[in-house]
Amino acid sequence: MTNDLATLMRQAQDDDPLRALHATTALRREIERLEAVQVRRARVAGLAWAQIAEAIGVSKQAVHKKYGRG
Prior knowledge:
Oligomer: single chain
Number of helices: 4
Mean pLDDT: 93
Distance between the termini: 30 Å
Number of strands: 0
Strand content: under 5%
Low-confidence stretches: none
């Protein structure tokens, strides 16, 4: 299955529930990967965990727990 977001979005709306589920799962993975990249970029740019958490819409503790390692 391709990781092209536009293709995955179309497939996630497919009438075939299994195809839609596969696409939805792939979308979630890709979004998680993109979020991790942006969090790393934000940290490298010197943003505080609190700023990143606010942008994501979670607590500072939650974002630090998820992305603070390594």
